[in-house]
Specification:
Two copies of one chain form a homodimer. Chain A is built from nine helices and nine strands. Chain A is of the alpha/beta class and about 220 residues long. The structure holds a DNA duplex (24 and 24 nucleotides).
Chain lengths: ~220, ~220
DNA sequence: TAGATTGTTAATCGATTAACAATC
DNA sequence: TAGATTGTTAATCGATTAACAATC
């Protein structure tokens, strides 16, 4: 599965381990390309693209080179085409369904946030233990009791779990969703989750972000 | 200012450029130490500390070594003392005041979030353009009209701005707060801010986090 | 003291940037 | 064609990990 003929570029295969930073930049490029598209700009060079991001043009070219050849020497990249390719690489050239677990302040904000839908994500359901929250609709999500977690994840074809519960139940919830096939978790809980290999967790730690800013004061 | 005698460890001076990743890990260590303290554990080795974080013990020691010598060979680190030192390094051994600009869904969630207060942050004020929001109190913050931005930042001794406005006004707001002395911005807006040297911006980009997770599906 | 663990230097690893032949 | 820009290799830079003398 991981040792395979080294020769080919393997445009589509997930052959070499792609650095996580590359994947994040790809998503960033996609957004810049979206903006360019809206301005009716059809072509862009790696230099121009990099300037929008405060980065190095060589990095843009190298990031893309992990996945294939998308440009034209002497010309640059075609905006619409490159964006389509990146969306395909990121697997967001289709509707991806996510669910929020924990409908507290943060959970509600995430459900009401419109930025996800813009990239093709749908959040049809959310879960909470509070009977007062169950039954409500926030954004486009219906709030369901956490008892129905497994059943509803399957029913709605959920692929990503957005975790916004308190610290205490976080690991138990993670265990449950992983047991029913979830492999991607966006974790807002300040707790390190222990997960089996093959499950990917992205941590968003608001306190760390704020506290580490304080270091640069004065 | 940046070339100085290389000899000494310079425990307190911000001498060498400390990698941003080191600062973030320091904040992470602080939280683990806080948990250990609550369990009445008084001593901890770099090995134990690193296990709580899924990291390398040498990295823990090296991170701390940027700032001084806090451990005892053969013993390890004293939990309470090390935590106090880290808080001092991070400049969070005092009350740090922040303000939220933009009281939409995300802004409200951040104001209601209790995790910041736990680390000594206070958010006494927030700003919005909507007259229906102005005058309300969310969490411990009073919502003020954005016209009063400069005046109120000075009045309340605000040091960090948490930016949660729409994309369009983000740069203009940043310019205004920087002009009145702010040097640290926590930016939730998916827009690259152009700021003068000396101003530190941390980006939290929810869409990028979610979209880059999709890559690991299937 | 013997055992354990630090602080720090050296080795390794990986990511970023520069350079340039290939090519439109 | 001449000019521009890609894709890719090589050079540089920085961060992580290993190793070990110093020391409690």
């Amino acid at each position: 599965m991981e040792d395979r003929p080294q020769g080919q570029a393997a445009e589509d295969g997930a052959a070499r381990r792609i650095p996580k930073a590359v994947i994040k930049r790809l998503s960033l490029y996609s957004r810049v390309l979206q903006n360019l598209e809206m301005k009716n700009i059809t072509k862009v060079s790696s230099k121009e693209l990099s300037e929008h991001l405060g980065q190095n043009p060589a990095q843009v070219r190298k990031d893309l080179a992990y996945f294939g050849q998308f440009g034209t020497p002497g010309v640059g990249y075609y905006v619409a085409e490159l964006r389509a390719q990146i969306k395909r690489i990121l697997r967001t050239d289709r509707e991806v369904r996510a669910a929020v677990v924990g409908v507290g302040n943060l959970g509600q904000a995430l459900l009401a946030y419109t930025g996800f839908a813009r990239e093709g994500f749908r959040i049809p359901i959310a879960f909470d233990t509070d009977p007062l929250k169950v039954g409500r609709t926030i954004g486009s999500a219906q709030v369901l009791p956490v008892e129905e977690l497994e059943e509803r994840i399957r029913q709605y074809g959920i692929e990503i779990i957005i975790l916004a519960v308190p610290s205490e139940p976080a690991q138990a919830i993670a265990d449950r969703v992983i047991r029913c096939g979830i492999t991607a978790i966006l974790n807002f809980v300040p707790t390190r989750l222990v997960v089996p290999p093959g499950v990917k967790v992205h941590y968003v730690d608001l306190t760390i972000e704020l506290e580490s800013l304080a270091y640069y004061l004065k």
